[in-house]
Amino acid sequence: MKRILGLLCFIVASSAFGQIKMTGVVKDSIGTPLELANVIAINKESNSLESYAITDANGKYVISLGRNGQYNIQISYIGLKSVDEVVETKEADITKDFQMMSDSALDAVELTYEMPVTIKGDTLIYNADSFKNGTERKLEDVLKKLPGVEINADGQIEVEGQVVNKLMVNGKDFFDGDSKLATKNIPSNAVDKVQVLRNYSEVGQLKGVQNNQDNVAINIKLKEGKENFWFGNVTAGGGVAPSPNDELYLVQPKLFYYSPKYSINVIGDLNNTGEVALTGRDIRSFGGGFRLPSNDSGTSINLGNNGLGGLTNLGDAQTIESKLGALNFSYAPNKSLDLSGFVIYNANRLRTRQESFVRYTNTDLGIPNEETVQTGKEATNQGLAKLSAKYQPNANNQLDYDILARISSDSENQNEFSTVVGNTNQLDEAKPYSINQNLNYYYTLNETNIFAFEAQHLIKDEDPFYNAILENDPTNNENGFDPEDDIPNEDAFDETAFGLGINRDQFGYNLNQERRIKSSQLDAKLDYYNILNSKSNINFTLGTILSTQKFNSNIFQFLDDGSMFDPVASLTNEEGDVLRNENDTEYNFSDVYLGVHYRLKSGKFTFTPGFSVHAYGNKNTQFGTTYEDNFIRILPDFETRIQFKKSERLIFRYNMKNAFTDVTSLAEGLVLNNYNSIQYGEPNLQNSLSHNLNLSYFSFNLFNYTNVFATLNYNKNIDQIRSLTNFDNVIRTSSYFNSNFADESLSFIGRFQRTFGKLRASIRANYSFSKINQFVQGVRSVNESFSQTYRPELSTNFREAPNVSLRYEYSVRNNNQGDNDTQFITSAPSIEFDAYIWDALTFKTDYSYTNQSSDVGPSQSFQTWNASLAYRKDRDAKWEYEVRASNLLDIDSEVNNGSNNISVYSSETFILPRFVTFRLTYTL
Asked: Closest Cα to residue 595, out of 295, 204, 301, 303?
């Protein structure tokens, strides 16, 4: 492996040193340097684009050319006559200046190639064909090659370090702007231009009174001929794999229709090859473009998420069956009205296996080490539907309405063997649904007065059910835990069963819990903007948040004879009150606030100081007892922006935030998170207050294609909501309280990227430090953790030659847990290679090696290697034939080491075996 990496590095370096540089200055007819002039070099022998550049503020350009060749140098600038000259290279670098004349001075020069990157105001435009080499199949493959653009680990698009908020195709929302669906499904051959819209605002009336510099959208312009008829592709395939995946199948239709008046997008996916189109986390985060009106008010209320957590990551399983059907449409019956919407159905079936070892770091807690083996079946059926309407009769009025409905049916069945507890069978089921509505109205009274009303209403109903069957020997209930006792110890769950009031005279504990959480929330605000002058405006906000949550739960037991038993708990809280095995709680929250913000532009600076005054009301009622708390709080915030250049800025933000918890943390009855994690709430729980500071720097230099971003965050929590945890064997019981000890966190993320001709080099660094106070077995301890991650990367972007991407990730995590220090080190080199051979074959492969080591256990490692070979007669061929192999080394598991506040752990997750499939793709 080291030899291969070394050889590839040599090839990459050789290609870089095999070129010469041509530099110079572009001026106008009177000798003034021209900024943002376009310079391209065309190889006369191959008639292909060799290099390109954009001049800097001093008119300077730099391009890379091959040795001993002839090149057409073409220079263009708006309003001036284009230049076309032939340059012959030798062995030495070249310095050459150019002078451009007025448009009427010379005859027209025909530009052979479009500029790969151009700027028009706040819009950065990439010509997609300038970055393609023939191996691309999806939009994602194109975006990865654009300077300043990156696809992060979560599948999101980042531009100049900022996550893209919205993605459109020909100006129309694609599934409400979801970037992952777009990057994975839009065919690359349909993409003409990628337009990056910086300072993006969906409401044109508010663009001049709000800071939108952090809002980035992407618009995909389709090629001519991809409009007014269907385009896309259909893929079908199959293969063989080891049992239980004996027969593999794959069907993926992706069809699109765009016209000036309407569009239709249809995406389907049916496979058992592990290519999950959308995970459960993707579906849950698919917000449909909704943004809370109170997002910047300083108030944060958590309505909770009571879905099944095990369905978050569908990538790690031994078998996966995935189904996806998605339809997106837009229709504009006239210039004033736009209608759009989507329907998504997603289903996944999995079989999982995981082996883990947990060692508790504080031996004084008396918690035994535990080894577990978990096997499970997971199933999810999720549906989403949205309808949106935008009515804009004129420039002064805009009305938006959206409704989003989601429903799911999820289940998770796990068998767990524990060296402490024995065998346990668990079943989780949930069928939640929610309806979210959004109404916005924007009205411009005149040039100086603008009104904006935004309201959002949410209804959510969740009904998780939990069942656990544990081993029990009814003859040893009183034996205790003394290892010196000749009589066998009692079962690990016996003491917990006694506290819950469970009948212990059974040959097994059959525990059940029903829960129902109904939530309703109205979030609305009215903004008034007064434009004082061309440099400043003032904003007044009147808003409210009103929410109600009802929570009911009940723990019961099925006995050996099939009858149902309602246990009466004997567990007590910190005050000695006996806890219930049920909950009947209603929680009402209200926030009425008035905010004032002043925005001032002064040269490169933009200042936005402000504050909001909040009148809070909290009331929860449980079993006839009411707990109430009403108070007023002022929350300041401040933002300063320094815009050094169009693509360079520094931003500082500060705000105070009040965070409120959800009803499940207030409900004083017992709740089973699972058999070994029990919680009860605190009805007098208060909010937490935090100070939040952020410093961000962004720079994108089109002259040398240097992309830099860095973000520093500091957070200090006061009255943080923390848990009080007590262990009975490996079974924990937790409650909540407002800690008098402040918790702090500090994080830094930075990336530097630079393009050198056909080479792109980058390095990304992440640092994070946190200090938290934890309370276990009545003892407070301060836990500190520090992690650092570095990821250098070198990649090429040749149009004719093969391309390679080399990446190395190195991370160190240090944890100080009271008297225990642990360190985990992960190193992961990886390589991606793709080649377009004989204008017919496309070969792709990727390989990674991950090694994890720590000071508490032996080093562990695993490898992944995938490859594919595809054939099509030429670039325009309708049919493509592909052989794809995943997990070529047939690695059966991946390993992961880590730690939390009280333990260190190692886990081994079993994954899909080697898959080999044959695929046939037809392009419309």
From this structure: 295
Residue-by-residue DSSP string for 231-297: EEEEEEEEEE-STT--EEEEEEEEEEEE-SSEEEEEEEEEESSS--SS-HHHHHT--TT---GGGGS
Residue 608 contacts residue 639 (beta carbons within 8 Å):
yes
Q: Which helix (H) or strand (E) holds 105?
A: none
Is residue 506 within 8 A of residue 474, CB to CB? The reply is yes
User: What residues contact residue 556 under an 8 Å CB cut-off, 6+ apart?
Assistant: 512, 513, 514, 564, 565, 566, 567, 581
For residue 785, CA distances in Å to 123, 523, 776, 788, 905 come to 41, 37, 18, 10, 16
Q: How far apart are CA 799 and CA 693, in angstroms?
A: 44
Q: Are 388 and 398 in contact (CB under 8 A)?
A: no
Give me the amino acid identity at 706: T
Structural contact between residues 815 and 821, judged by C-beta atoms closer than 8 angstroms: yes
Residue type, 24: G
Question: What pairs with residue 823 in β-bridges?
Answer: 814
pLDDT of residue 738 exceeding 80, the answer is: yes
CA distance 597 to 599: 7
Residues whose CB is less than 8 angstroms from the CB of residue 211 and which lie 6 or more positions away in sequence, other chains included: 599, 606, 608, 639, 641
Tokens 């390109």 — which residue?
52
43 touches 63 (CB < 8 A): no
Q: Could you give the C-alpha distances from 409 to 83, 282, 285, in angstroms and in order?
A: 64, 16, 17
**pLDDT tens, position by position, 428-476:** 999 999 999 999 999 999 989 999 999 999 999 999 999 999 999 888 8
Cβ contact 822:899 at 8 Å = yes
Answer positive or negative: Cα dihedral of 360, 362, 365, 368.
positive
Per the document, the length of the chain is: 924
507 touches 477 (CB < 8 A) = no
Identify any residues that bridge with 356 across adjacent strands, giving them in sequence order: 372, 907
**Of 261-265, 275-279, 359-363, 611-615, which has the strongest mean pLDDT?**
611-615
> Strand locations in 447-563, DSSP E?
449-462, 465-470, 509-533, 536-558
Q: Render pLDDT for 474-513 as a digit per residue (tens, 0 to 9).
A: 888 776 545 444 444 788 888 899 999 999 999 999 999 9
Burial class (CB in 10 A: 0-12, 13-18, 19+), 2: exposed
Rounded to an integer, what is the distance from CA 719 to the centroid of its chain?
29
Cα distance between residue 504 and residue 157, in whole Å: 55
828, 850 contact by CB (below 8 A): yes
What's the pLDDT tens digit per position in 254-264?
Answer: 999 988 888 99
pTM more than 0.85:
yes
Three-state DSSP class for residue 206: helix
